[in-house]
Design a protein that fits this description.
By secondary structure, the protein is mostly beta strands. A four-stranded antiparallel beta sheet has the order 1-24-23-22, with no helix packed on it. Strands 2-3-4-5 form a four-stranded antiparallel beta sheet, with no helix packed on it. It has a four-stranded antiparallel beta sheet with strand order 6-7-8-9, with no helix packed on it. It has one domain: 6 Propeller (Neuraminidase), CATH 2.120.10. The chain contains one helix and 24 strands. Helix content is 4%, strand content 50%.
Length: 265
């Protein structure tokens, strides 16, 4: 979703004079665990040990067997690769845009990472982030699996013993969602900036807004000053993951991935 569309979306969402109406455009039936959408609108879905790629019009393009890999998360924010993370086995795997293996399975234990909990892409070079809760470190590694930077002593962020559920980098900032605590914000060097108080279950960042889902309500928070913008919208009941891209909303439910858009009357 581009910035102009989002600005128009947020300026009218749930105002006193209008209510957003969700218009469904398409769907991909099936029981999927995770999804991601790349810059070209291609959709990536995981179902146990299988990953599928669909075009922007929801036509099947490629599929790949993940073998023993069971994705905890997948991210295709870089148009040339998809990052798959298996938290239980502490393994990551990169695939190109035809779902062809790039490096094979990478066991993070072999790189002195004790308990990798979350992994996400970074846009400062060909790098990626790892949150290691075993040592309470935030680590950035490059494509050669060399350490670029790390932040130690993160234990104070998890003082309520609630483990983080998601990590996303956007616009030179890293966001970590911690239920019952808020969203921890870091810069691209891993320096802690602030905690945004909220109760995030899932997050997304679009343009200058941090989108925080709590239950079925998604609240938009301005990333310039981290004030609640006063705008929110409601996802369908049962939606687990969501994404706004290409002027569309994508949300994952038990029986399908749905593609739609919000209209204001």
């Amino acid at each position: 979703m581009n910035g102009l569309f989002l600005l128009g979306f947020l300026s009218t969402a749930l105002s006193a004079f209008t209510q957003p109406k969700l218009e469904l455009l398409d769907s991909i039936p099936g029981k999927y665990t995770h999804f991601s959408v790349d810059n070209f609108g291609r959709i990536y879905l995981s179902n146990r040990d299988v990953m599928l790629q669909f075009s922007s019009s929801c036509d099947t393009l490629f599929s790949a067997s993940l073998k023993q890999l069971q994705p905890t998360s997948l991210e295709s924010s870089k148009s040339f690769r998809t990052l798959v993370f298996d938290q239980e086995r502490s393994v990551i795997h990169f695939f190109d845009n035809t779902l062809t293996d790039i490096h094979g399975q990478i066991d993070l234990f072999n790189y002195d990472i004790r308990q990798p909990w979350l992994v996400c892409e970074s846009f400062a070079g060909n790098t990626f982030w790892i949150l290691d809760v075993g040592t309470m470190r935030l680590i950035k590694m490059n494509e050669k699996l060399e350490l670029v930077t790390q932040t130690d002593n993160l234990a104070t962020l998890f003082h309520n013993k609630t483990m983080p559920v998601q990590m996303v980098e956007s616009n030179d900032r890293l966001y970590i969602a911690i239920p019952e605590a808020g969203v921890a914000v870091f810069d691209v060097f891993g320096t802690f900036i602030r905690m945004v108080p909220c109760k995030p279950e899932r997050i997304s960042v679009v343009d200058k807004y941090l989108l925080v889902r709590t239950g079925t309500v998604v609240t938009a928070i301005e990333t310039e000053n981290f004030f609640d913008s006063g705008h929110s919208y409601v996802l369908p009941e049962g939606a687990t993951e969501f994404s706004f891209m290409h002027e569309k909303v994508y949300f994952l439910c038990e029986q399908a991935l749905y593609v739609g858009r919000y209209k204001f009357e």
